[in-house]
Fold this protein.
Amino acid sequence: MVYLNGEFIPKDQASVSIMDRGFLFGDGVYEVIPVYSGKIFRLDEHLKRLQNSLNSVQINNPYSAPEWSDILHQLLGLSTESNQSLYLQISRGADISRKHSFESLTPTVFIESNPLMPKTKSELEMGFRAMSQPDFRWQRCDIKSTSLLANIMYSQQAKQNSVEEVILHRDSNVTEGATSNVFIIKSDTLLTHPTGKHILSGITRDLVLESAKHCHLNIEESTFTLDHLLMADEVWISSSTREVMPITQVDDRLINNGVIGQHWSHVYDYYQGLKNA
Ligand code: PDD
């Protein structure tokens, strides 16, 4: 079952107009929200980021926070899975003709939920490979837009090269991953690109920073180069569906000789505690 514009209907019966600007232009925004043991994790933070994305592109939020919460819980109630990943998207809606500029339209709201199966600690301890690429995305990566062509190209490259993620760099500074935020550890200090227009301000990123603080790491939200990353003690990526994942090889360089770092293990454990709190 999915939610579409006020109704809960079977997925194969859900459809939208060919004039929907989400279909024609990718003119919409989205959120991905994890659900653990039936509880929506960090809903307020996700709704706040959704509001920021909507404000940036001038789409009116169709629902209040309590209304969103109510709809999401109703959808969750239709599934027996306890860990789920909610996907919600709001497009600007359907117009009568295709033009780039827009009038005031009724937004299209689509929500679905899928089982969420985060990797276990022992699976993560195997370490993951990444590759690097110049970041050729636009300058508003802070908007969680459904226009994801660049990210799709990178993710397909990752798949074709059998790596977990593409790590992006702009003007020699690492920005983020194609679908994640990036962290490095050097001598008990964690570095991650500052929030702003060049990265998506990940909800998991904030939780990783909170966990790292708790694990007595120094936190520096500042830029670092690809060379710094290749020489780091540890490299991690984070997202709502992957949580915090250790990267042990980038391009043909092993990170810390391919050995998982102890800081990752501590931060991972603390993060699990936050999920289950
Ligand atoms: N992506 N940066 C980018 C470009 C992302 O696409 C994502 C997440 C993140 C991490 O954000 P968060 O921690 O809030 O999930 C950072 C989601 C999972 C997706 O597009 O499916």
